[in-house]
Amino acid sequence: MKLLSQLKTSSFQLALLYMVVFATSVFLLLAFIYWRTAGFMAAQTDETIEAEIAGLAEQYRGRGVNGLITIIRERVARDPNAKSIYLLTTEDFLKLAGNIGAWPDGARAQSGWINFTLNESVGWQGAERLARARVFEVQGGLRLLVGRDVDDLATLKRVIETAINWGMGITLALALLGGFMMSRSTTRRIEVINATSRKIMNGHLSLRIPTRGTDDDFDQLADNLNQMLDRIVYLMEGIRHVSDSIAHDLRTPLTRLRNQLETTLMLVDNDDAREQAGRAVAEADQLLATFNALLRIARLETRGSTADMHPVSLGLLVSDACELYEALAEDKEQVFRQAVDEQVMVDGDRDLLFQMISNLIDNAIKYTPEKGEISVSVRAEDGKAIFEVSDSGIGVPDDEKESVFQRFYRVGKSRSLPGNGLGLSLVSAVAEIHKGVITLSDHYPGAALPGLTVQVAMPQHREEKRKIKTIPAKPVASSAGEQDSPADSTRV
Length: 492
What we know:
It is found in: Membrane. It catalyses: ATP + protein L-histidine = ADP + protein N-phospho-L-histidine. Helix content is 52%, strand content 17%. The protein has helices at residues 2-7, 10-78, 151-201, 217-267, 271-303, 314-331, 350-366, 423-433, and strands spanning 84-89, 95-98, 112-118, 129-138, 142-149, 310-313, 335-341, 345-348, 373-381, 384-391, 437-441, 452-459, 468-471. Helix 5 (271-303) packs parallel to helix 8, helix 6 packs parallel to helix 7 (350-366) and helix 7 packs antiparallel against helix 8 (423-433). It is rod-shaped.
């Protein structure tokens, strides 16, 4: 799989393109060398044959047929290796002189250049060899064949062709290996950038892309990206500092204002004035809750992974939170289910984990209509502690599932409900401290009320024998009104 991904990289494809261009140029060069070498040797052979024919013709003009027969016999006697091929016959193809005994198949009825094989069919006594000859008629009806043994030339051609094939194969193999090595080197540098970028996107804003100090293109790119990250972090810290400072500076006067309104509420006798003062106190409480949530998130983000971690029973924490929130579910006649493995342990901060659990359960109850269903579970899976809350409420659209963890972000359907949009931001901050991963999904995909399943997966402290505590669903009697959360938690 890793090799397949390597082949898909743009650097490998570029190297492959270079390999094709390089291999094509090598092939053209070798083909030109072959054409020039083989062509020159073939032309040289033809010129040798033409020279012998010219010599025989001159002897024939001066000495006649007998002289021609004599010179052919002399040449055959002087050439024991039979590099030259001769055959002189009558019009009826009776041999008069030569070192082969018969005409090659198909050569009797033609003139000009022929290629044939020296074998028994032409009266050849030795091993089969290739030959090239020219055939023409002599005055008086005689027929003459003059040629050369070209078997060595054919062998040389085959050697050159084999060398070209091996050369092309070796060239392609080396080019492919070189392209793969170049691509691998480039991909390693890119993968370092990608891996660091993914960690930064997951919240590790302090990381920077490493450089080699070679000041090459990748180092320059890494330096530019690092400078961009420094600028982004600087701007984000500035915005965060401003919001945290505003929350911190306004919390004290708001607290005094709230206390004065509460004192006024106790002193006012008029019912209308008392109602207005009560609403003002409630609004002040909401503002204070918002500022407290902002400061709490800021402390968590500053604290990071330096939180005091101790082995904590996630199952027991969830059981305690469920016991606390069951009353709210009863007031809305909701079915509240639990499947809790009390032996699941995590390394974490008990108070922070309880805040995260309370927020998620409180949200599920708040955004689920009356007589709806809520399920809470804790289990161990593949070395992870899984905390999951599911409901049958309004849910979160797919295109907003990533945005709900931003500060003050609220889903359109929930804007009419109480809240400040900080609950899931707090949950995200707590999960990040505990190296947890949050996943949102529809509980009933495609339904009018798709509901929502929130899953938080954190590293498990250790594997232990699990004991499942299952509390069956119990329908609850209705009660008037909707209560506030019994825990001091920030809601979405």
